[in-house]
Amino acid sequence: MNVQVENHDKVLVAKVEGRVDSSNSQDFERQLQGAIGEDVQAVVIDLGQLAYISSAGLRVVLLVAKTLGQRNVSISLCALSDPVQSVFEISGFNRIIQIYDSQADALAAAG
Amino acid sequence: MSATLQLRIPNRIEELPGVSEAVEALGQEERWAQDVTYAIVLGLEEVATNVVRHGGGEPGSSEIEIEVTSSDDEVRIEVRDGGRAFDPFHEAPEPDLDAGVQERQIGGLGVHFVKVLMDETSYSREGGRNHVTMVKRRS
User: Fold this and answer.
1) Cα dihedral across residues A57, A59, A62, A68: positive or negative
2) Which of B16, B38, B46 sits opposite A83 (nearest CB)?
3) B8 to each of A19, B12, B48, B78, B125, how far by Cα in Å?
4) Fewer Cβ within 10 Å of end Cβ, chain A: N or C?
5) CA B52 → CA A85, B48, B63, B89, distances in Å?
C-alpha cells in the first residue's frame, strides 16, 4: 500500500495504490492524515489503483471524513474498481461520501 | 473436482496477508470469478481479524486453523480457534447504514460484509473451540 499526494491549488489529491487490510490500515491512516495540510479546502481520494480494501481500510476513510467534516473540508472518492465500489455500497458509505467516476470529475466538483 | 487449502497460523494480524495470498493463489488455480475471490479473501480477513482482536490471549499465543475447499459450484471456508466463545453473526453490533458521517460508528462493518457477501454463514462452539463456516456459491 502506498499513498501518493498531489496538490491542485487548494485541492489535495491522494492516490492510494495496492491493498489496504487490517495489517496495514494504521499505516494507511498515518499516511493519509499526514498528507492533509492545514490550508486544504477539499480532498479527493483517488482509488483507481486500489486493488483491495476491507473494513479496516473503510474505518480509516470514515475517520478522515469525520475529521475533514469538522473542519468544513469536503471529501470525495473517485475511480473505484467494481469490487471496491461494491464494498463501499454494502457499507453504505456511498450515501455519505461523494463518489465520482474519474479524478477529473472529482476535481471539477471540488474546484 | 475439488481442491483444499489448509493453513494453521498464530493469532497475529501480521499473518493475515499471507493467508490472503494463499487463498488468491487457490482462486487462480480453481478459476474463481474476480468477485468470488474478493468476497472470500475479504470474508476470511474479517473473521480472522475478529478472532485476533476479540478472541482474548496475547498475539501469537494460540493458533487459528483455516480450511478453504473449492468445488465446482461453491467454496467452503472454515475457521477454528481456541479463543473465548464469540459468535460474530449474533454478538457483533449491527452497523447503522443510514447514519451521517459524524454519527456513523464503524463497529460491525466486517461482519456485515460477511453476511452480505456470503451465501451461508454459521457458528458453533465445539470442544472449547469456535467454529465459523462460510459458503460462497460460484455463480
Assistant:
1) negative
2) B38
3) 23, 12, 12, 12, 19
4) C
5) 27, 6, 10, 16
Question: Could you tell me the residue ranges of all domains in chain A?
Answer: 2-110
User: How does pLDDT run across B32-72, given as a tens digit for each residue?
Assistant: 999 999 999 999 999 999 999 988 888 888 999 999 999 99
Of A22, A66, A83, the CB nearest to B101: A66
Q: Using one digit for the tens of pLDDT, what is the confidence trace for B80-129? A: 999 999 999 998 888 998 899 999 987 789 999 999 999 999 999 999 99
Which ranges of B1-139 does DSSP label H, i.e. alpha helix? 16-29, 34-54, 88-91, 109-117
Kindly provide the ipTM of the predicted complex, given to two decimals. Answer: 0.94
Give the distance from CA B32 to its chain's centroid. Answer: 17
CATH 3.40.50.300 fits A2-110, yes or no: no
A38 falls in which pLDDT band (50, 70, 90)? confident
Chain B hits for A91, Cβ within 8 Å: 95, 97, 109, 112-113
Is residue B106 within 8 Å of residue B57, measured between CB atoms? Answer: no
B21 inside 8 A of chain A by CB: no
The residue of chain B with its CA nearest to that of A53 is B42
